[in-house]
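Hi all, posting the design record for the shared folder.

TITLE: backbone redesign
STEP: 1 of 1
STRUCTURE INPUT:
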Protein backbone atom coordinates (compact mmCIF):
# COMPACT_ATOMS: atom_id res chain seq x y z
CA UNK A 1 0.00 0.00 0.00
CA UNK A 2 1.18 3.51 -0.77
CA UNK A 3 1.88 5.99 2.01
CA UNK A 4 0.56 8.79 -0.19
CA UNK A 5 -2.78 10.26 0.98
CA UNK A 6 -4.76 8.87 -1.94
CA UNK A 7 -7.03 5.92 -2.46
CA UNK A 8 -5.17 2.65 -2.91
CA UNK A 9 -6.93 1.95 -6.20
CA UNK A 10 -5.28 4.94 -7.91
CA UNK A 11 -2.25 3.79 -9.91
CA UNK A 12 0.40 5.50 -12.03
CA UNK A 13 -1.75 6.03 -15.18
CA UNK A 14 -4.00 8.34 -13.20
CA UNK A 15 -2.30 9.02 -9.91
CA UNK A 16 1.30 10.07 -10.37
CA UNK A 17 2.61 12.70 -7.95
CA UNK A 18 5.39 15.00 -9.14
CA UNK A 19 6.56 18.58 -8.67
CA UNK A 20 5.80 21.53 -10.90
CA UNK A 21 9.53 21.86 -11.62
CA UNK A 22 9.66 18.31 -12.98
CA UNK A 23 6.59 19.03 -15.10
CA UNK A 24 8.35 22.09 -16.52
CA UNK A 25 11.42 19.95 -17.26
CA UNK A 26 9.19 17.49 -19.09
CA UNK A 27 7.62 20.32 -21.08
CA UNK A 28 11.04 21.69 -22.00
CA UNK A 29 12.16 18.24 -23.15
CA UNK A 30 9.13 17.78 -25.40
CA UNK A 31 9.44 21.26 -26.89
CA UNK A 32 13.13 20.53 -27.59
CA UNK A 33 12.33 17.44 -29.67
CA UNK A 34 13.24 15.09 -26.84
CA UNK A 35 16.48 16.79 -25.73
CA UNK A 36 17.11 17.89 -22.15
CA UNK A 37 20.28 19.27 -20.58
CA UNK A 38 22.31 18.33 -23.62
CA UNK A 39 21.09 14.71 -23.74
CA UNK A 40 18.64 13.15 -26.16
CA UNK A 41 16.16 11.57 -23.75
CA UNK A 42 13.57 10.79 -26.40
CA UNK A 43 13.99 10.72 -30.15
CA UNK A 44 12.49 13.49 -32.24
CA UNK A 45 10.43 10.83 -34.03
CA UNK A 46 9.19 9.66 -30.65
CA UNK A 47 7.95 13.15 -29.79
CA UNK A 48 6.29 13.41 -33.18
CA UNK A 49 4.56 10.09 -32.52
CA UNK A 50 3.37 11.29 -29.10
CA UNK A 51 1.68 14.28 -30.74
CA UNK A 52 0.19 12.36 -33.67
CA UNK A 53 -3.64 12.41 -33.58
CA UNK A 54 -5.30 9.04 -32.95
CA UNK A 55 -9.00 9.83 -32.52
CA UNK A 56 -11.45 12.68 -32.04
CA UNK A 57 -12.00 13.84 -28.47
CA UNK A 58 -14.52 16.05 -26.63
CA UNK A 59 -11.83 17.15 -24.16
CA UNK A 60 -10.38 19.92 -26.28
CA UNK A 61 -11.35 22.92 -28.41
CA UNK A 62 -11.74 23.80 -32.05
CA UNK A 63 -13.76 22.24 -34.84
CA UNK A 64 -12.14 18.81 -34.72
CA UNK A 65 -9.93 18.35 -31.63
CA UNK A 66 -7.87 15.17 -31.50
CA UNK A 67 -6.51 12.85 -28.84
CA UNK A 68 -2.94 11.79 -29.40
CA UNK A 69 -0.85 9.38 -27.30
CA UNK A 70 -1.69 10.89 -23.92
CA UNK A 71 -2.16 14.42 -25.26
CA UNK A 72 -5.10 16.52 -26.45
CA UNK A 73 -4.48 18.54 -29.60
CA UNK A 74 -6.61 21.63 -30.28
CA UNK A 75 -7.35 23.12 -33.66
CA UNK A 76 -6.52 26.74 -34.38
CA UNK A 77 -9.28 29.00 -33.04
CA UNK A 78 -10.07 32.72 -33.25
CA UNK A 79 -8.77 33.25 -29.73
CA UNK A 80 -5.62 31.11 -30.11
CA UNK A 81 -4.31 31.09 -33.72
CA UNK A 82 -1.86 28.27 -32.99
CA UNK A 83 -2.05 24.51 -32.46
CA UNK A 84 -2.24 23.79 -28.72
CA UNK A 85 -1.18 20.50 -27.09
CA UNK A 86 -2.30 19.94 -23.53
CA UNK A 87 -3.43 17.60 -20.79
CA UNK A 88 -4.55 17.89 -17.19
CA UNK A 89 -4.44 15.73 -14.14
CA UNK A 90 -6.28 15.61 -10.85
CA UNK A 91 -6.90 13.75 -7.63
CA UNK A 92 -8.79 14.74 -4.52
CA UNK A 93 -5.66 16.39 -3.15
CA UNK A 94 -4.35 18.26 -6.18
CA UNK A 95 -4.88 19.30 -9.77
CA UNK A 96 -2.68 20.48 -12.62
CA UNK A 97 -2.61 21.36 -16.29
CA UNK A 98 0.24 21.33 -18.80
CA UNK A 99 0.01 23.15 -22.12
CA UNK A 100 2.42 23.55 -25.03
CA UNK A 101 2.34 25.68 -28.18
CA UNK A 102 5.27 24.27 -30.19
CA UNK A 103 5.08 27.04 -32.79
CA UNK A 104 5.86 29.59 -30.05
CA UNK A 105 8.20 27.29 -28.11
CA UNK A 106 5.87 27.98 -25.21
CA UNK A 107 5.18 25.68 -22.28
CA UNK A 108 2.93 26.49 -19.32
CA UNK A 109 2.29 24.40 -16.21
CA UNK A 110 -0.19 25.32 -13.49
CA UNK A 111 -0.86 23.29 -10.34
CA UNK A 112 -3.03 23.69 -7.24
CA UNK A 113 -3.22 22.05 -3.82
CA UNK A 114 -6.86 21.08 -4.43
CA UNK A 115 -9.02 20.21 -7.40
CA UNK A 116 -11.25 23.10 -8.39
CA UNK A 117 -10.56 22.77 -12.15
CA UNK A 118 -9.15 26.30 -12.14
CA UNK A 119 -5.75 25.24 -13.54
CA UNK A 120 -6.80 25.09 -17.23
CA UNK A 121 -8.55 28.46 -16.90
CA UNK A 122 -5.35 30.01 -15.57
CA UNK A 123 -3.39 28.50 -18.46
CA UNK A 124 -5.85 29.89 -20.99
CA UNK A 125 -5.77 33.31 -19.32
CA UNK A 126 -1.96 33.35 -19.50
CA UNK A 127 -2.05 32.49 -23.20
CA UNK A 128 -4.68 35.17 -23.87
CA UNK A 129 -2.56 37.79 -22.09
CA UNK A 130 0.54 36.78 -24.06
CA UNK A 131 -1.46 37.20 -27.27
CA UNK A 132 -2.61 40.68 -26.17
CA UNK A 133 -6.22 39.56 -25.68
CA UNK A 134 -8.56 40.28 -22.79
CA UNK A 135 -8.74 37.00 -20.82
CA UNK A 136 -12.22 37.82 -19.56
CA UNK A 137 -13.43 37.87 -23.15
CA UNK A 138 -11.11 35.36 -24.81
CA UNK A 139 -11.38 32.54 -22.24
CA UNK A 140 -14.78 30.92 -22.54
CA UNK A 141 -14.74 29.58 -18.99
CA UNK A 142 -14.07 33.04 -17.55
CA UNK A 143 -16.75 34.60 -19.74
CA UNK A 144 -19.27 31.99 -18.57
CA UNK A 145 -18.33 32.48 -14.92
CA UNK A 146 -18.75 36.26 -15.29
CA UNK A 147 -22.11 35.83 -17.03
CA UNK A 148 -23.37 33.56 -14.23
CA UNK A 149 -22.23 36.07 -11.62
CA UNK A 150 -23.98 38.87 -13.51
CA UNK A 151 -27.38 37.15 -13.70
CA UNK A 152 -27.51 35.31 -10.35
CA UNK A 153 -30.18 36.72 -8.05
CA UNK A 154 -33.91 37.29 -7.66
CA UNK A 155 -36.30 39.03 -10.02
CA UNK A 156 -39.99 39.98 -9.64
CA UNK A 157 -42.76 40.51 -12.17
CA UNK A 158 -44.89 43.70 -12.00
CA UNK A 159 -46.83 44.11 -8.75
CA UNK A 160 -44.63 41.36 -7.28
CA UNK A 161 -46.99 38.71 -8.60
CA UNK A 162 -44.30 36.19 -9.61
CA UNK A 163 -40.69 35.50 -8.76
CA UNK A 164 -37.82 34.45 -11.01
CA UNK A 165 -34.71 33.25 -9.15
CA UNK A 166 -31.39 32.24 -10.74
CA UNK A 167 -28.58 30.30 -9.08
CA UNK A 168 -26.35 27.25 -9.11
CA UNK A 169 -27.72 23.93 -7.86
CA UNK A 170 -25.84 20.62 -8.15
CA UNK A 171 -23.33 22.31 -10.48
CA UNK A 172 -26.11 23.35 -12.86
CA UNK A 173 -27.45 26.81 -13.66
CA UNK A 174 -31.09 26.75 -12.58
CA UNK A 175 -34.04 29.12 -12.61
CA UNK A 176 -37.08 28.94 -10.35
CA UNK A 177 -39.76 30.66 -12.39
CA UNK A 178 -43.29 31.64 -11.46
CA UNK A 179 -46.06 32.63 -13.88
CA UNK A 180 -49.74 31.97 -14.58
CA UNK A 181 -48.96 28.30 -15.12
CA UNK A 182 -47.49 27.88 -11.65
CA UNK A 183 -43.91 27.55 -10.41
CA UNK A 184 -41.33 25.47 -12.24
CA UNK A 185 -37.61 24.79 -11.89
CA UNK A 186 -35.70 24.98 -15.18
CA UNK A 187 -32.10 24.07 -16.03
CA UNK A 188 -30.67 26.87 -18.18
CA UNK A 189 -28.59 26.13 -21.28
CA UNK A 190 -26.36 28.79 -22.79
CA UNK A 191 -27.41 30.09 -26.19
CA UNK A 192 -25.48 33.38 -26.50
CA UNK A 193 -23.24 34.04 -23.49
CA UNK A 194 -22.06 37.43 -24.75
CA UNK A 195 -25.65 38.72 -24.86
CA UNK A 196 -26.84 36.72 -21.82
CA UNK A 197 -29.33 34.67 -23.79
CA UNK A 198 -30.21 31.19 -22.49
CA UNK A 199 -32.57 28.37 -23.39
CA UNK A 200 -34.70 26.44 -20.92
CA UNK A 201 -33.94 22.72 -20.98
CA UNK A 202 -36.71 20.98 -22.90
CA UNK A 203 -37.43 17.65 -24.56
CA UNK A 204 -39.25 19.52 -27.33
CA UNK A 205 -37.14 19.08 -30.46
CA UNK A 206 -37.58 22.62 -31.76
CA UNK A 207 -38.14 24.67 -28.63
CA UNK A 208 -37.69 28.32 -29.61
CA UNK A 209 -38.34 29.70 -26.14
CA UNK A 210 -35.48 31.89 -24.89
CA UNK A 211 -34.58 33.47 -21.57
CA UNK A 212 -32.87 36.82 -22.03
CA UNK A 213 -31.24 38.92 -19.33
CA UNK A 214 -31.20 42.65 -20.05
CA UNK A 215 -28.49 45.09 -18.96
CA UNK A 216 -28.78 48.77 -18.19
CA UNK A 217 -26.93 50.44 -21.08
CA UNK A 218 -25.36 53.04 -18.80
CA UNK A 219 -24.32 50.93 -15.80
CA UNK A 220 -23.89 47.54 -17.47
CA UNK A 221 -25.81 45.92 -14.61
CA UNK A 222 -28.40 43.23 -15.31
CA UNK A 223 -31.79 44.68 -14.34
CA UNK A 224 -34.40 42.53 -16.06
CA UNK A 225 -35.00 39.04 -17.36
CA UNK A 226 -37.53 38.18 -20.07
CA UNK A 227 -39.06 34.70 -20.00
CA UNK A 228 -42.04 33.50 -22.02
CA UNK A 229 -44.45 36.48 -22.00
CA UNK A 230 -43.19 37.91 -18.71
CA UNK A 231 -40.68 40.57 -17.76
CA UNK A 232 -39.16 40.33 -14.28
CA UNK A 233 -37.23 43.14 -12.59
CA UNK A 234 -34.18 42.47 -10.45
CA UNK A 235 -34.60 42.95 -6.71
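Okay, here is what came back for every position:
SEQUENCE:
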Amino acid sequence: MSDLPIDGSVKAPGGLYTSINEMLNYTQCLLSQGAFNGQQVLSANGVETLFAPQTSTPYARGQNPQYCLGWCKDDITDNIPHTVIHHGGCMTTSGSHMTMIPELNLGIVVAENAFTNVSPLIVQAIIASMLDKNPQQAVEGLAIAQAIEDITGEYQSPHNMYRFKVGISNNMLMADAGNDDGNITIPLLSDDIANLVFKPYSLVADNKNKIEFLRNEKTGKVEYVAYDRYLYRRQ
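COMMENT: The mean pLDDT is 89.
Let me know if anyone wants the other runs.
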